[in-house]
Amino acid sequence: MSTINDVSRLAGVSKATVSRVLSGSRGVKEASRLAVLKAVDELNYRPNVIAQSLLSQSTGCIGVICAHENINQTTSYLYVLEKHLSQHQKHLLLRFANTKSAVLHALEELNCGLCDDILIIGARFPLDIDQENVILVDCMEAENVNSIQFDHAFAAETACNYLISQGRRQIAMIQPQGSGFADQVLLGYKHALEKNFLPFNRNLVFLEATSSSVALQELLNNAATLNFNALMVADEHEAQHIIPQLQAFNKSVPDDIMVFSLGGSLQLPGVPVIPAIEYPIEAMAVRIVNWLTEKTQDMLGTQLMRGDLFIPDVRRKASR
Amino acid sequence: MSTINDVSRLAGVSKATVSRVLSGSRGVKEASRLAVLKAVDELNYRPNVIAQSLLSQSTGCIGVICAHENINQTTSYLYVLEKHLSQHQKHLLLRFANTKSAVLHALEELNCGLCDDILIIGARFPLDIDQENVILVDCMEAENVNSIQFDHAFAAETACNYLISQGRRQIAMIQPQGSGFADQVLLGYKHALEKNFLPFNRNLVFLEATSSSVALQELLNNAATLNFNALMVADEHEAQHIIPQLQAFNKSVPDDIMVFSLGGSLQLPGVPVIPAIEYPIEAMAVRIVNWLTEKTQDMLGTQLMRGDLFIPDVRRKASR
DNA sequence: CTGTTAGCGCCTTCAT
DNA sequence: ATGAAGGCGCTAACAG
Q: Which parts of the sequence belong to the HTH lacI-type domain (chains A, B) (predicted)?
């Protein structure tokens, strides 16, 4: 790799002039400007970003630590994030970490000059971090200033309302252990019931379920008395586990039981499409990039991010 | 962030001594060693990797450009790669790029001092790159020295043999346009037929299919005469598109038609599990990391990577 | 054993 | 308009 010295020598000017030409060339004689450009082209010179980083004290690298349990959930995040970051000449440095210690370890490794800022996404365990350049996205227990959180109560309320509007008044709910949002979800769930003058049945609700399978079995064992006709689960992944089990018990989806995902739908080919709350990843990415570039407005933590209600289009079921 | 100067000042030694203590401290008086360590701890000092990189001319960053069409395919790659890379203190710099120009653009941006080496994964378009520090993984037309390629002919042959062993002698095949491996796959397919003394029926094979849907329709329209009972498709994604369409035509899978994926199975919950050729990602990651760290053995291009035959365990169908 | 010196490649004053 | 010099934070060679 050729350096600025090579260029300056070949062009017969000083390093300073080369630098000037390459960064907003103003106050440079046209002749030397051309000489520099020619030398640059000849040597195929590209300024070393590391040296620039050392000087500017910023690398343009954003560390992204994916703490989500199931990786498929993160894929769409990553794709959208990378798109927005690269549009702003920022680089995405990827890390996976499923436990608190793993996250902290990754944080340590990334946070020693390599990354300007760090995103932690989808952690389902408490994470007492309070660094200025770290922002938590969809993590639990983030009283931190820098965080983007989802409005799970609102999601649950919307979901209930939708289900009720579809004639489903016996709504069961399973939240896996350690989701971290059980109380918020329960709040929204209860709100919706209250507003619709429906009673709250404790036996329909499984918060902190060790196994969603077992919770489902318990629901099914009491199906005769509970008589539930809708089931809210945490995310698409859960839903796709649950649905075959319902079918195995001769419950058709959605006719007998409508399954609703509170955490987005993957919409992969081959899997049944179900109604869901879909969090606007694009909008989130925009908010993140804004914060990364502006750094002034701390509009991150001010308001919870609300998802959209996604309803499967039955007509398009078979099409691509 | 505190620098080595702060530490040396606080510890009352020179920068050099600090550096010595932190990197394989030998030949340092115990007293000053402890003083340095104390100062380091007090200031919470961590050496700036950028400055180190400038000196060592290597950043420990590996650029990974995902050129796969469908992102879900890349997720498992990324996860495994990141695991192996971070174990070797290397960082994964992620980029998505679906077109040749996008890949070249990303390459340009990553290849100016930021990344030591760059991986391009799953490009389905020709990519005439010949840089020492770039390695192509599962890309088409990689006569390049640095590449890991999959043995698609072997995969097709294995697939056919398996299908024939299952009593499926009328094997259809759909390869999407621009997969880049159509000829290799065809080779393996023909080999298997020959070795089993089966005739080759041109109408069963769709290479360079603009739309796999249309190809399937053509197959189904001629189902009476073709009478096919197996169908090989490029990957799981294709398979999950195809299967509902088969079912819509009252063909049951796998009873009437066994669908086989030549490019791995995602094994997501909710989607039917089908037989497939599964490429050993872990082994691939090991090979890649070996090359990145050793750089000596060019065992990358020497042999094609062969996949394993994956057969769904029917008994476990309903379990997690 | 330890401090001084000289750069890694770049950019930014400060003179000229 | 342009060159020389200094320094970003660190390490390696060279003296002591």
A: 2-56
Residues A17-36: b if buried by 16+ CB within 10 A, e if exposed: bbebbbeebeebeeebbebb
Residue B314 pLDDT grade (very low, low, confident, very high; cuts 50, 70, 90):
low
Looking at the domain assignment, is residue A320 inside a domain?
A: no
Q: What is the pTM of this model?
A: 0.93
Query: CB under 8 Å to A315, separation ≥6 — which residues?
Result: none
CB contact under 8 A, B268 and A271: yes
| Domain identity same for B177 and B248 | yes
Domain identity same for A131 and A161: no
> The domain spanning residue A225 has which CATH number?
3.40.50.2300
Question: Which nucleotides on chain D have any atom < 7 A from a protein Cβ?
Answer: 1-13
Output the CA torsion sign for A40, A45, A51, A52: positive
Q: Does A19 lie in the same domain as A127?
A: no
Report pLDDT digits (tens) over A65-121. Answer: 999 888 877 888 999 999 999 999 999 999 999 999 999 999 999 999 999 999 999
- Which is it for strands A61-66 and A91-96: parallel, antiparallel or unpaired? parallel
- Domain of A17, CATH number, reads 1.10.260.40
Its domain, for residue B219, covers 152-278
Task: Give tens-digit pLDDT for A209-236.
Answer: 899 999 999 999 998 899 999 999 999 9
